[in-house]
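Dear support,

I submitted the protein below through the web form. The confirmation email said the job was done, but the results page showed an empty box. After a refresh the structure appeared. I'm attaching both so you can tell me whether what I see now is the final result or a partial one.
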Amino acid sequence: MPKPDTRPVSAVVLTALPVEYNAVRALLTDLDPEELVHEDGARVERGRIEGTSWTVAISELGEGAVHAAAMTTRIVGWLRPEVLLFVGVAGGLKDDIEIGDVVVGTKVYGIHGGKQTPKGFHARPEVWHGSGRLVPAARSALRDMADVRGHLKPIACGDVVLADDKSALAEHIRLHYNDACAIEMEGSGAAHAAHLNGQLDALVIRGISDRANRHKHKADASGSQELAAKQAASVAMAVLRKHRPRGGGSSDSQEGPFRGHEDGASYGGDHIDFRGGTFYGPVTGKSDGR
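What the results page shows now:
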C-alpha cells in the first residue's frame, strides 16, 4: 500500500540519472523522512521550495523514452500534480551552445518517426510543445539568472546516445530537426504522458554536458554532467518560483483586494470594473456565492 499522503503534491520533477536527481534534491527543503512508495513500486521523495508554497515530488526513473512515458503516467496518476518538469543533462547540437548552458524545451521532437522507402527515409515528425504557461515563466526566470546561460529552443529526443556528430543520425537531425539545440533520451516520453493527461503544464529542461561528439566521454569524465545537472536544476526551481501554484491557500497564490483607482475604490477577490468601458451588447455577471 502507498504511504498515506498528508501533503498534496503540486509539482513533480522527474530525472533519469542519479546525478540529475541529486542536483534537484539538493535544492529542496523540508524533505519527508521516508520515500513515498506506491503499491506498484513507484517511488518519490517529497519536499518544498523554500519561500514558496510549492510541494514538489522528485523521482529518478532511469533511461529511455518509453520507460519515461510509462513511469510518468504512473506517477502523475498517483500524485495528480499541476506541473511536470523533466530535468537533466543533454548533448549540445549547435556550435554556440556551450557545456554548462541550459536549454529549455520550447518543443520536444521525437526523432525516429518516419517511413523508409526506396528513395530514402521520409521523416514523419512528432512534436510536443512546452507549456504556454511555463515557457514565459522560464523566459522571465532566465533574465534574473546571471550565472546561467539559457536558451529557449527545441530539443531532439531519441532512444540513443549520440556520440558522433559526423554520423548518419547526426545528419538526420540536422536535416529534419535543424532548429533542435540539444539531444536527450526521455523528454518525449514525459511530454507525451503529460499531453495525454490533458491537465498538466509540462516542460523539459536540460543542461548541456557534452557536444554529442566523439569527445563525449572526456567531457563526462571532467565533471560536465554534474555541472550541467546543477545548472538545469537551478533553472527548474527558478521556473517554479516564477510560475506559482494555482491554488492551495498560500499568500503567493491568493488574490487579495484590488486597489489602484484614484478614488481609492477597492474590491475583494474577483471583480470586473466597468468604469470607462464601452459595450456593444449585453454583459452578464454571476456570483458563485463566495
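Response: this is the final, complete result; the empty box was a page-load delay. The radius of gyration is 22 Å.
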